[in-house]
Amino acid sequence: MPQTHPAIDQATPTTAPPAPPTALSLEERLTFINAAMSVRLDEAKVAYEVNTAHIETEPVDLADVVTVPLTPTLQPPPESYPTPVAALLQRAHHRLLTGGWCSGALVDEDGARCMLGAIRAEACGDSGLEADAAAVLLDAIRRKFGDVDSVPSFNDAHGSSRVPIRMVDQAAGLADARGL
Fold first, then answer.
1. Does residue 67 register a pLDDT over 60?
2. What is the pTM of this model?
3. Cα-Cα-Cα-Cα dihedral of 172, 119, 102, 152, to 10°?
4. CA–CA dist 114, 99 (Å, integer)
5. Interval 125-151: pLDDT, tens
6. Between 84-99 and 115-123, two packed helices, what is the crossing angle to 10 degrees?
7. Residues 6+ apart with CB under 8 A from 143
8. Quick count: other Cβ atoms within 10 Å of Cβ 129?
9. What percent of the chain is helix, strand and coil (3-state, nearest 5)?
10. Structural contact between residues 161 and 101, judged by C-beta atoms closer than 8 angstroms
11. Mean pLDDT over residues 158-173, rounded?
């Protein structure tokens, strides 16, 4: 008799084929994109730091960067310092804010004044008070900027009013701290 071999049962597998992928929702896609962009931004940050590590930089004075709209003509002058030199410098600061700042002259054709011109106008002819205020201002300038020849040379070395006006304000605080 011929030998029969039992047939191997080749039935179809009992596991179902994988289901086609379902589309991601908008929220899921945004989450994945956010994660991918965060990784890319972190890599770019590191690359920037590596590529610029050799570049010398100077610290930035935020007073030069952060500006607010000034309407000094609409603002009353601040309460005056109790000491005469500090009060004079404070008035000179306010005059520069309201009347304008210039370089190259004590007073320009529009009525704007340089640092020394504002001090002279507010001193009202008191040459001793004017000299004291100019000396404190020069000291304040030298504290921040090193060796400076004079107030007029410092004033004329600037193309905008921000630094000179700020220095007059700082000199007023310095004079008040010294009791002048």
1. no
2. 0.58
3. -90
4. 10
5. 888 899 999 999 999 999 988 888 888
6. 120
7. 174
8. 18
9. 55, 0, 40
10. yes
11. 89
